[in-house]
C-alpha cells in the first residue's frame, strides 16, 4: 500500500451551511458572548461571596470554568471558519490534535466533576454528621485536581498515539477535530486498533463510570429523602435538581456526539446535531446554575440591581 504522509486536514462540516454564513456567524457569536458573560459572572460571584464559598459551589465554579475553556477552544475558531471559509477549512495536523486534546479532556473532566458533585451531595444528605470531617478544603482541592489531571493524562496518551498514525485520507466531516475521527482517517493496522481500544477505555473511565456513579449517588439520595420528612426531602431534592439537569444535558449531548461519529463512519453525517452538541451544553450550564440555584440567583439579582426591596 502506498501511504502518503498527511500533514494538513480539511474540515468539511460547514459545507451544508456555507450559503448561510452571516446568519450562522451572528447566532454563534451571540451564543459565545452569552457564555462568556454568564459563566464569568457566576464564577466571579462564587469566588467573591463568602456565603458561596462551600464545596458544592466550588464544584459548580469548576464546571462553569470547564465550559468557558471548552467554549474558547471551539467558538473563536468556528466563528473564523464560518466568516472566512466557503465550507471547507484547512487546518494543520498539529493544530487539529491540539484542539482535540483540549476539547476531549475538558469534556471528560466535566463528567468527573459531575461525579464529584454527586459525591458531595451524597455525603451532605446521607452522611450529614461526617460531612464536615470528610469534605475538607484539602479534599475538595485534591478532587478538583484529580478531575482535571486524570482526563488530561489519559487523553494526552490517546492524542500522542493518534499523532503517530499514518493517514491515508485528509477530509474530516466535522465542525471541529476529535481523536476518533482522526483515527478513522488512518490507514488501519495494529496502531489504529490500539488507538480505538484506548479510546474505548478512555470513554469507559471518564464517561461511563462517572455517569454510573452519579446515578448510584442520586439513587441513594432519593432513597434517603423518601424516608425523611417532606420539608427535608424538598430541600434536599431542590439542591440536587440543578446538578441532575446538567448531568442529563451532558449525557444527551454525549449520546448525540457518539451517534454522530457512527453516522460519520457510515457517510451520513448531519450538520444540525453537530451544532446542537456545541451550543446546548455551554448555554445550559449558566442558565441552570444561575437561575435554579437560589443562592446564586439572589446574588445575581443584587449585583444587577433588580432585587425587590424587602417589605
TrEMBL record:
Localization annotation: Cell membrane
What keywords are annotated for this sequence in UniProt?
A: Cell membrane, Disulfide bond, G-protein coupled receptor, Glycoprotein, Membrane, Olfaction, Receptor, Sensory transduction, Transducer, Transmembrane, Transmembrane helix
Q: Please give an example of a GO cellular component term from this record.
A: plasma membrane
> Where do the G-protein coupled receptors family 1 profile domain residues begin and end?
38-289
Membrane topology of this protein: Multi-pass membrane protein
Isomerase as a keyword?
Answer: no
Keyword Glycoprotein appears in the UniProt entry = yes
- Identify the PANTHER family for this entry: G_PROTEIN_RECEP_F1_2 DOMAIN-CONTAINING PROTEIN, ODORANT RECEPTOR-RELATED
Put simply, this protein is called Olfactory receptor
Task: Give the species.
Answer: Larimichthys crocea
Amino acid at each position: 500500500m502506498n501511504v502518503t504522509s498527511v500533514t494538513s486536514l480539511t474540515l468539511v462540516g460547514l459545507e451544508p451551511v456555507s450559503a448561510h454564513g452571516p446568519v450562522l456567524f451572528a447566532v454563534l457569536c451571540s451564543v459565545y458572548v452569552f457564555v462568556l458573560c454568564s459563566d464569568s459572572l457566576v464564577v466571579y460571584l462564587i469566588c467573591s461571596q463568602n456565603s458561596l464559598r462551600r464545596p458544592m459551589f466550588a464544584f459548580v465554579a469548576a464546571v462553569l470554568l470547564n465550559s468557558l475553556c471548552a467554549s474558547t477552544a471551539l467558538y473563536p475558531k468556528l466563528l473564523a471558519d464560518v466568516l472566512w471559509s466557503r465550507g471547507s477549512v484547512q487546518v494543520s495536523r498539529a493544530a487539529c490534535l491540539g484542539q482535540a486534546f483540549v476539547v476531549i479532556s475538558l469534556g471528560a473532566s466535566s463528567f468527573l466533576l459531575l461525579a464529584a458533585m454527586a459525591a458531595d451531595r451524597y455525603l451532605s444528605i446521607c452522611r450529614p454528621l461526617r460531612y464536615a470531617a470528610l469534605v475538607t478544603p484539602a479534599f475538595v482541592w485534591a478532587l478538583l485536581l484529580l478531575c482535571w489531571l486524570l482526563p488530561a493524562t489519559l487523553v494526552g496518551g490517546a492524542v500522542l498515539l493518534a499523532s503517530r498514525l499514518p493517514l491515508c485520507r485528509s477530509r474530516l466531516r466535522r465542525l471541529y477535530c476529535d481523536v476518533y475521527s482522526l483515527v478513522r482517517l488512518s490507514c488501519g493496522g495494529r496502531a489504529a486498533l490500539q488507538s480505538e481500544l484506548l479510546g474505548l477505555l478512555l470513554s469507559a473511565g471518564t464517561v461511563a463510570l462517572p455517569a454510573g456513579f452519579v446515578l448510584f449517588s442520586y439513587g441513594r439520595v432519593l432513597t434517603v429523602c423518601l424516608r425523611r420528612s417532606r420539608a427535608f426531602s424538598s430541600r434536599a431534592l431542590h439542591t440536587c435538581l440543578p446538578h441532575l439537569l446538567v448531568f442529563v444535558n451532558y449525557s444527551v449531548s454525549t449520546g448525540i456526539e457518539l451517534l454522530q461519529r457512527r453516522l460519520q463512519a457510515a457517510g451520513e453525517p448531519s450538520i444540525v446535531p453537530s451544532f446542537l452538541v456545541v451550543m446546548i451544553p455551554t448555554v445550559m450550564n449558566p442558565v441552570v446554575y444561575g437561575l435554579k440555584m437560589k443562592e446564586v440567583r439572589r446574588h445575581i439579582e443584587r449585583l444587577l440591581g433588580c432585587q425587590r426591596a424587602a417589605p
